[in-house]
Design a protein that fits this description.
- The chain is of the alpha+beta class and 137 residues long.
- It folds into 2 domains: 80 residues, no CATH class; 52 residues, no CATH class.
- It has 3 helices and 3 strands; from the N terminus they run E-H-E-H-E-H.
- Strands 1-3-2 form a 3-stranded antiparallel β-sheet.
- It is elongated.
Length: 137
């Protein structure tokens, strides 16, 4: 997902219209309400999110669509794309063997690590993962 920021607010609707006109089946334009629901990019006027089979590149010039010679790892997709889920493997003396945590949010990892290290980081948004099978203090 790529946030779109516009310096001149008078161009906002034009930028969004151009993005929507070129989207076809390649990407989705996410509006501020969509981004708020996702908890992403509060200052962006919108964002574009590549549909499956496409990825967002870094080129500022050249063709809008290019072919990538081989498949590569990507990140930044919305949670609705379950095929983009990743695994999490946790090892250590505090971890109950065979524990299945189910779906874990990325925000939970810093909260869990800070808890295990007894570092009081109260400003973290995630939840402490119950690695011992019980909620950690």
């Amino acid at each position: 997902m790529a946030p779109i920021y516009v310096r001149d607010s008078s161009l906002t609707s034009k930028v969004i219209d151009v993005l929507k006109d070129h989207a076809q089946d390649r990407y989705e334009v996410l509006m501020p309400a969509d981004l708020e629901t996702l908890g992403s990019f509060p200052a962006a006027v919108c964002a574009i999110d590549a549909n499956p089979g496409y990825s967002l590149g870094q080129n500022l010039h050249g063709d809008l669509i290019t072919t990538i010679p081989k498949t590569r790892g990507e990140h930044g997709y919305q949670p609705k794309y379950k095929e983009m889920d990743a695994g999490l493997l946790v090892l250590g003396p505090e971890v109950k063997p065979g524990l299945n945590l189910g779906t874990v949010q990325l925000l939970d990892i810093p909260a869990t690590v800070s808890n295990l290290m007894s570092l009081p980081l109260d400003h973290l948004d995630g939840q402490v993962l119950p690695l011992s099978g019980l909620n950690l203090p």
